Amino acid sequence: MRIRTLYLGAIALGFLVGGASADPLSNLASFPSFYADPGMKTMKPMAEFKKAWRATPKKDRAAMRKACNDPAMSKAYAPFCANVLALGGAN
Questions:
Q1: Positive or negative CA dihedral for 63, 22, 52, 57?
Q2: 22 in Cβ contact with 67 (< 8 Å)
Q3: 3-state secondary structure 27-68
Q4: Is the distance from CB of 56 to CB of 31 less than 8 angstroms?
Q5: d(CA 49, CA 43)
Q6: What residue range is the signal peptide (predicted)?
Q7: pTM of the model as a whole
């Protein structure tokens, strides 16, 4: 019985972690190259942002563009999404 409880708990934790990682913008801490300050409040100038954008893997860029096209997401991450959408076609 105890093993079953642990097993179900592990499955539930897996679903929680999987759901949290579905939002590519929820972990902007993994993208400090887009920010000018350590607190990640100020975006870098567009030229530097563009360099960081191009250094980001294509899969991540596509996920970020998709998330920024969602009105709920783009509102929460407005400055970041404004730059992402401005570079939408940049590879």
A1: negative
A2: no
A3: CHHHCHHHECCCCCCCECCHHHHHHHHHHCCHHHHHHHHHHH
A4: yes
A5: 8
A6: 1-22
A7: 0.64
Tokens of 77: 């991450």
- Look at residues 58, 78, 60 and name the one whose alpha carbon lies nearest to residue 70: 78
Helix, strand, coil tally for the chain in percent (to 5) = 65, 0, 30
Tokens of 90: 């940049």
The pLDDT profile of the chain, 91 residues, written as one tens digit per residue, is: 554 443 434 444 444 444 445 676 776 656 678 888 887 788 899 999 999 999 988 888 888 888 888 888 778 788 888 999 998 755 4
Name the DSSP letter for residue 23: -
Q: How many helices (H) and strands (E) does the chain have?
A: 5, 0
User: Would you say 24 and 42 are in contact if contact means Cβ atoms under 8 Å apart?
Assistant: no
